[in-house]
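Practice problem 4.
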């Protein structure tokens, strides 16, 4: 794959991943053939900032966990009202990292 395409992809999508994953993503994208490039470009990643806002507003209902695909944890938060508020507050600090890890897992599924 062309390095220019890879660099443009990383510039447009770097906020969706942890910074320490970016060199590995770049290297792996450079090794891909052009036929898989279309699939990679059509992937939809969750925005960590949007998920944080959702967590601040509706985290006690588990909405943030449902959006990122953690259905079991979303049900747990819903049934316990966010762990009586404690789980909700913890998620305010952790949800962006969890979202970025979920985005990385989505990308890895399509890279290998």
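Answer key:
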């Amino acid at each position: 794959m062309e390095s220019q395409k890879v660099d443009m992809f990383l510039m447009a999508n770097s906020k969706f991943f942890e910074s320490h994953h970016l060199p590995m993503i770049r290297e792996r994208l450079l090794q891909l053939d052009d036929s898989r490039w279309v699939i990679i470009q059509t992937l939809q990643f969750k925005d960590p900032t949007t998920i944080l806002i959702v967590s601040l507003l509706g985290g006690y209902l588990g909405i943030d966990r449902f959006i990122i695909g953690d259905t079991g944890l979303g049900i747990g938060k819903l049934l316990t009202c966010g762990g009586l508020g404690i789980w909700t507050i913890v998620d305010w600090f952790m949800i962006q990292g969890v979202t970025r890890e979920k985005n990385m897992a989505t990308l890895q599924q399509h890279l290998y």
